[in-house]
Amino acid sequence: MLYDITRTVSTQLAVWPGDAAYQVQPVLKIEQGHSVNLTTLIMSPHTGTHSDAYYHYQIDGAHPAEMPLDSYIGRAHVVTVHKGRGELLPEDFAHVDLTGCERLLIHSRVSDLPDSAWATKFVFLSVPLIDWLADLGVRLIGLDSPSVDDFESKDLPCHHRLYQRGMVNLESLNLRDVPDGIYELIALPLKLDLACGSPVRAVLKTL
After folding, report:
1. Which tens digits make up the pLDDT trace of 155-186?
2. What is the pTM of this model?
3. What's the pLDDT score for residue 189?
4. Nearest to 107 by CA among 175, 46, 170
5. What's the rounded Cα separation, in Å, for the pair 177 and 27?
6. Which of 93-105 are b and which e, b meaning 16 or more Cβ less than 10 Å from the residue's Cβ?
7. Which of 15, 11, 16, 3 has its CA nearest to residue 203?
8. Per-residue pLDDT reduced to its tens digit, 56-92
9. Which CATH class for the 2-7+47-206 domain?
10. Angle at the Cα of 183 from the Cα atoms of 177 and 185, rounded to 5 degrees
11. Do 123 and 99 meet the contact criterion of CB atoms below 8 Å apart?
12. Catalytic residue positions?
């Protein structure tokens, strides 16, 4: 069974304040006598469910085309957290055994929001949590929240700690109907040069 954990990219999708909203501009139309429909897309690479490239917050960081693909595909643990907002700490995962976990997907109340709603209060990572997970062998952390850092953060400590520990992240997942458990994750970024992130089509396959 497949679970599609991707937010639908549409003109109604909420984006980070100040980001370019998703637009579809027609270039050619069959109804106007052309042989094909052709469109131009305008969007932020952080639209909907996406991966951050290291270049997003490191001046010399990798672009999506250079990010480690094997981190975005493989076994993943889906874990629901009961905290509604604020930083997540190791003790927030005391109810689950993460032994052998390489990819952690964190399910919070944000998954219950419609695509058109934007959350400014949400759960986000902490440096102690990142270090604890890295020591366990976790390579990817995904959240349904729009950021791994607090919405008001300017120095982005969690983004930078992920980079320092060689980890990658996914943001704005939709885990609404996914039971906690272990799955196979496929969430590959596009092979984009020069960009700071990439939309992904994130799916979970039952084992």
Report:
1. 999 999 999 999 999 999 999 999 999 999 99
2. 0.96
3. 98
4. 175
5. 37
6. beebebeebbbbb
7. 3
8. 999 999 999 999 999 999 999 999 999 999 999 999 9
9. alpha beta
10. 95
11. no
12. 56
